[in-house]
Amino acid sequence: MTETLAAGTSTGTEEVPAIRLRKLTKVFGDTVAVNGVDLDIRHGEFFSMLGPSGSGKTTVLRLIAGFELPTSGSIELEGKDVSAMAPFQRDVNTVFQDYALFPHMSLVDNVGYGLRVRGMPGSQRRERAREALDRVQLGKFLGRKPAQLSGGQRQRVALARALVVEPKVLLLDEPLGALDLKLRQQMQVELKELQRSLGITFIFVTHDQEEALTMSDRIGVFNNGGIEQIGTAHEIYERPGDIFVANFVGTSNIFDAAQAQALYGRADPLCIRPERLRVAWAGDPERRSGITSRPGTVTSFVYVGHATQVRVQLDDGPAVVALVPEKLPGGDAELVNGPVTVSWDDAAVVWLPARGT
Q: For residue 14, is pLDDT > 70?
């Protein structure tokens, strides 16, 4: 696992983390779903667990919540071992993708349900629920039922219900997955602003790279039951720790060990992000060559609005994708199968260990 400061490394002054996992393992039959995970999540941090299906991220979330018990290892909440505790004994709450709202209850009763279970008197409960709904801009809809709301509004109700009991940690299990793109992007901003204003630790599970990069203070990239890399969005994207992270987070052009050896005399894989490549067409005098240049042939291109993705088969290397922000010269027929030169600065190269493939 790669991290700027590895999980569990002490600086001598750091406080007890909000969540600490040590050698956390969960086995289902013959399947090792979580394999010896070590992780510290800080107080007030928005931490995302990012990974493909089956990577172990959701199982780790369920272990923290208490919905599953670990096969081995430990879970600490603010220094207290909660590994064997039932969910209701842990000061955490969970927001699910399907909202899990009671359809027959009003919004104020939905949000106040957890307080009711805890025995809070009715008037106090309703006031707390109203405050929570105000916090998510739904204070005007106290008497409505969930069916009368949009998907985004129902998600806000689920958030208010989880936050009204003032948990130390809020767990979010792909809560935006059922929303359309525009609403999902809007909710990403609102979630981050809400988390920042409350100062509560959020642990967010997603397979969506954009969500993780947009909202997170730090990201843990999961694969095969473990964590490949932990870092900020910038660290994860700009300095991926291995081939898996480079391929999973964003788009990368991977040169294998043999191709890298031919380019730089070093037999380790490397990656270059598409936006770091420059493409020069024949007869284009305005383009400058980078430190490293290779001839190739355009095989396809895709216009994506703000730029064009140009795929080039290098004459002596792999097929690469370049993200070209400016208007392309000529027409479609002139681009495809046309000769180009692809160039990049040495600073764009990220060397990768062979693990994590």
A: no
Closest to 278 in 3D by CA, of 208, 325, 241: 325
Distance CA 143, CA 221 (A): 41
Q: Is the distance from CB of 67 to CB of 100 less than 8 angstroms?
A: no
Domains defined for the chain, CATH in brackets: 2-248 (3.40.50.300), 253-351 (2.40.50.140)
Q: CB of 216 within 8 A of CB of 229?
A: no
User: What's the predicted TM-score (pTM) here?
Assistant: 0.87
> Mean of the pLDDT values across residues 143-154?
90
Q: What is the per-residue pLDDT for 150?
A: 87
Q: Of residues 18 and 179, which shows the higher confidence score?
A: 18
